[in-house]
Amino acid sequence: MEGKSKVKQGKSFKKEVWGKAHTVMGDKQLCLGKHWSYNLYNDPKRLAFVLARYKFVAKMASKGKKIIEFGCSEGIGVPIMSEFAARYTGVDMDGDAILTARENWGSEKVRFINDDFLGKKYGSFDAAVSLDVIEHIVPKKENEFFKTLYNNVSADGMAIVGTPNQTSFAYASKASRLGHVNLFTYDRLKAVMQRYFKMVFVFGMNDEIVHTGFLPMAHYLLCVGCGKEKKQKK
């Protein structure tokens, strides 16, 4: 009987501790949109990869900064980027994704804009970020994409562009192959960014690991441009 009593007391104690922990969680619940519901259900590891990309961005460009993200989708990277940022603005042409982003992440320092951002200026930001976007933009529009980043950052600001490496195309899924109409190699991405920024650094990424190793073997590329060129190079 004594043993049963101790077991009962142990269960009661655990329930009490969990009850206290549960109250800290509050009532806030997130609701994923179609994009991330699909990804999480069909390819859950992708979420880990994408969040690792945003962690890189946050370490490079977010502390105390005003950030704008082009192609923010449902804002899955917002809690990482905005944690230490002064302000965050996300822009995307997908209206449903923006509604999801606003519901989940909107706040006084986080805002979302439903717009086709190409050629638009939303202000002067410390950092412009765009991950997994340029590969979906047809080549004849790519210069407009990079000009948009350039025009939205301050003179000493930076831009961070992330995109799958062209060398990884052979291993891409069917969905990726259909949507990726403009893939870059590391040297082409660096050359384009050098038209707009004084210093350009290219990093490779395999799964969640960021590196500066042999870039042709990187699945993903992260390119950082710092300090705007006074005049864009041809």
What does this 3D model show about the protein?
38% of the residues lie in helices and 24% in strands. With 234 residues, the protein is an alpha/beta fold. The protein has a single domain (32-228), classed as Rossmann fold (3-Layer(aba) Sandwich), CATH 3.40.50.150. It has an 8-stranded mixed beta sheet, with helices on both faces. The longest helix is centred in the first third of the chain and has 23 residues, at 2-24. It starts with a helix and ends in a 6-residue tail after the last strand.
Keywords:
single chain, 234 residues, alpha/beta, Rossmann fold, 8 helices, 38% helix, globular
Helices and strands, with pairings:
Blueprint: H1 2-24, H2 34-42, H3 45-61, E1 66-70, H4 78-81, E2 87-92, H5 95-105, E3 110-114, E4 125-131, H6 142-151, E5 153-164, H7 174-179, H8 186-193, E6 197-206, E7 209-211, E8 220-228
- On the 0 to 100 scale, the average pLDDT is 90
User: If you consult CATH, what is the topology?
Assistant: Rossmann fold
Spatial gap, N to C terminus: 85 Å
The helix-strand sequence is: HHHEHEHEEHEHHEEE
In terms of DSSP E residues, the strand content is 15-25%
**Name given to the CATH architecture:** 3-Layer(aba) Sandwich
Give the helix level as a range of percent. 25-40%
Radius of gyration: 21 Å
Unreliable spans are: none
Annotated CATH homologous superfamily: Vaccinia Virus protein VP39
Task: Return the domain count.
Answer: 1
Quaternary class:
single chain
The first-level CATH class is given as: Alpha Beta
Q: Please state the structural category.
A: alpha/beta
Q: Biggest sheet, strands in spatial order?
A: 3-2-1-4-5-8-6-7
Task: Describe the largest sheet.
Answer: 8 strands, mixed
Shape estimate = globular
Number of helices: 8
Number of strands: 8
